[in-house]
Write a structure and sequence with these properties.
Elements (H helix, E strand, L loop, with lengths): L9 E9 L2 E9 L3 E2 L5 H21 L19 E2 L1 H13 L4 H18 L3 H7 L5 H14 L6 E2 L2 E2 L7 H5 L26 H6 L11 E2 L3 H7 L7 E2 H12 L13
């Protein structure tokens, strides 16, 4: 019996207009079912280009970015990431040699213990997308008060910088770094990102419990409990859904630095 003929990939070649500047997007889209993880590299590239435009604009306005290596205050915030990013983080840890892998796993365990002690762990695991904006902000500030650093924060810098989640890429401030010690809307000036790639990407994923995001510090547990995505769709449909969501300025976000 002859093997089934695979449909050729579709080629996307388009230009997005972001603050009167063009971002060219070229992508080969397979005509088969994929998970959102397939689209993640494209989302990262697009986010980087959008962020570059935002950085240029604030610099031109006389407000250069104050984020720099050695600060790391934002890495103590609650970081809502995609389920596919949680699985990728778990994979990165699994690929680390010993004893470094053990060190990172211990940091995750310490973060989990701190969340349980502060009664943050349960709400985060159950919240899915049910939090109201006020509840999300309150939970994010309670998490920040714990002072728990991201397991990958080392000497004030991200040790997985190239693999950092989308939401981390989009979080930039132009206010003095000292103000980030208490990151309320009254104290910090977040850089306005003209196209919210992280929020649009969240619309591609939803697990059995309805989650579109996962706390970064839950990544290892989440990936163990959800090793495979359950929300596969035809790749052309994923691309369409993403760009439709990207055009929607009222997308919901998770708590913490994405709120």
């Amino acid at each position: 019996m002859a093997a089934p003929v695979q449909a050729p990939d579709l080629h996307l070649d388009t230009e997005l207009r972001v603050r009167n500047r063009g971002i060219r997007v070229q992508l080969d889209v397979p005509q088969r079912t994929e998970s959102a993880a397939w689209f993640l590299p494209t989302a990262r590239t697009l986010a980087n280009r959008v962020i570059h435009i935002a950085v240029e604009d604030v610099a031109a306005a006389g407000e250069p970015i104050s984020c720099k290596a050695g600060c790391g205050a934002c890495c103590k915030q609650l970081v809502p990431i995609l389920p596919s990013e949680a699985r990728r983080i778990a994979q990165l840890v699994e690929e680390m040699p010993q004893p470094r892998q053990g060190v990172i796993r211990e940091r995750f365990a310490q973060a989990a213990a701190a969340m349980q002690a502060a009664q943050v762990d349960g709400p985060l695991r159950k919240a899915a997308n049910t939090l109201t904006p006020d509840q999300a902000n309150a939970l994010g500030m309670k998490y920040f008060e714990m002072g728990v650093s991201c397991p990958f924060l080392e000497e004030g810098s991200c040790s997985i910088y190239e693999e950092r989640p989308l939401i981390c890429r989009e979080y930039l401030v132009s206010s003095p770094a000292s103000e980030c010690e208490w990151p309320t809307a009254e104290r910090i000036r977040k850089v306005a990102i003209p196209a919210k790639v992280a929020q649009a990407a969240m619309q591609l994923e939803q697990d059995r419990e309805g989650r579109r995001w996962v706390a970064l510090t839950h990544s290892l547990d989440y990936a163990k409990a959800h090793p495979e995505p359950t929300d596969r769709a035809p790749a052309p449909e994923l691309v369409t859904r993403f760009f439709n969501a990207l055009a929607d300025a009222k997308l919901p976000s998770g708590p913490g630095m994405g709120s």
